[in-house]
Model the fold of this input.
Amino acid sequence: MAKKPTAPLPAPVPIKPVALGEALSERYLSYAMSTITARSLPDVRDGLKPVHRRLLYAMRLLRLDPDGAFKKSARVVGDVIGKLHPHGDQSIYDALVRLAQDFAIRWPLIEGQGNFGNIDGDNAAAMRYTEARLTDVSQALLEGIDDDAVDFRANFDGSEIEPVVLPAAFPNLLANGSAGIAVGMATSIPPHNVGELCEALLHLIRTPNARVDTLVDFVPGPDFPTGGKLVEPRESVIESYRTGRGSFRLRARWTIETLPRGLYRIVVREIPYQVQKSRLVEKIAELLNAKKLPMLEDVRDESSDDIRLVLEPRTGNVPAELLMEQLFKLTELETRFPLNLNVLDGGTVPRVMDLREALQAFLDHRRVVLQRRSRHRLAAIARRLEILEGYLVAYLNIDEVIAIIRGEDEPKPVFIERFKLTDLQAESILNMRLRSLRRLEEIELRTEHGALSKEGAELDALMADDRKQWAAITGEIQELRKKYGPRTDIGRRRTEIADAPAIVDVPIEAFVEKEPVTIVCSEKGWIRAAKGHLEPQAAADLKYKEGDREKFVLHAQSTDKLLTFGTNGRFYTIGVDKLPGARGHGEPIRLMIDLGNDQDLVTMTVFRGGRKFLVASLEGRGFVVPEDEVVAQTKNGKQVLNVGEGEEAAICVEVPANADHVATIGENRKLLVFPLEQVPEMTRGRGVILQKYKDGGLSDARAFRLADGLIWQSRTKTKADLQEWLGERAQAGRMPPPGSPRANRF
Done:
């Protein structure tokens, strides 16, 4: 049996070498642009991202009108996935849920039926249990979509079409805001009040060159669905709207309810936008348990449909304003909402706009929609007038028309030839119903013809006159203002515009319950704070890790600050309330401050304020520094004593208020006493030479009053005893007298 001939092999595909970096750059750029334009940034014209636009369009195709019946959310999500948006069902459903949450979006675009989540952060029910339909706001966004108001494009597989942008008779971008993270850019736009936006739009139509400062008179700030108080200074608001970038400071709204016997309680009725109430209550409870809120006794959530958080102060003497300032600083009762007006201009180009540009883009879009709808209507009027003129010819020649229809096999070309009709007119006459041949019908046709002719003339005049177009847009915005303005329940401003609060200096004592503690730090740097002021014997009984032992033991209050000085010449500040308890071995102090493993602690003291310290390096250079100048604000500490490579700080001792001399002793056991006035007072530097050494370095130093004598290892060296060792700064010194302590430490 003969073998079948094999098909020839296809020609090899030529392989073109491409640099890896070039290929990655090209593909990553494509991915980035896709994320920016088709997922994360809203269009400035309708304020929607693609997923939201597709949701609304799919619901319109399902005829889920505001006055119609609800349908399962799963049905909506399925249509969106199958026809328009081939992404995960959960992400699409999450977008649908958010558009229906009145606490997440100022002007809901979807009306939900069922469990759509709550402000506590609870999730919505599964899509098979919830139902949805469009709202009046969505209808405004879709108004005119059948009148060629916008362009359409093919969907992902070419089987359907979808709108590139919605007609948007509603300023959705600023009214509902938007948030998203793209590749290399992000957007964050807070919601605003529609009535105020309408006022700004009307002013912009009247004054096209209006400045942002003027527009802020109409739009004083965001209007969040959860209310609250906007306490951002007006200058900052203007600057944010002028640049398109900034932030808004938002606070909870609270009231005081008086109780018997001089007591009161604070009731929080509105919380900042996007703050989960349950998480807020948990945070306050955690601070209470950690004793960070000494003025607060208890917090209760008595919310039902409305928010009601009850805060009970410890006593009626606690100022409510001070307590709330404390909570504003420590909890999400005060937040900052960012503004980044980064949008797609024309649907393709991402850029940051200011307030005026965003409003003008909406007006320009409305004008384009008006022109397109007018042209579409003119075309429909022209077609209808052409048909009506054909009908009128038929009525004038009704007997001949009937005769032609009865006697001709193909009456259409005869009509065209006999009455000079167009193809459309002839076809329309043939499609007329017999009941339309009444005399009354002819009168109605002539009336309709006149009305359409008049409407067409008005539309022609509209298309030819820019002022009439802007007048029409003004009328639309006025109707919108009337429907969603401040006199309506839905349009009333929810977020109060308040003055920027005065800076209240709340002392740390107001944040932390004051109680005595004993700070214990080991040689290996493990630190802890035991309750109470322990006696020396009790402190000595504390357990340490194997090979470790006590180094510093200090009595303090929980409201104090702890100052530590490292061998790198830096001072570090730690809040005593931040220290771990003494049940275990504590925590490494290096977790609290940025102290390297090759560095160590020189000294540790409780901040008192007003004192002075003598700091010196091992090489014998030093100076006096005020205590108030060494407090650090960060973990990185504050550099005070500059030490060179291979050098390290060795001394940090308090300078008594009555001190007039300094005593130094070196590792070579030479002692020097010189006037304190020879040591400069500085805030940072390397210092001056205190004592010169041929071998070794500085072992210890003390500032003291010469008349009182120098205490050395519990022995007092009087002024007379020290006469031979009195000298000038930077001398080498002399060996101490016989019988002096052998330790080179005072």
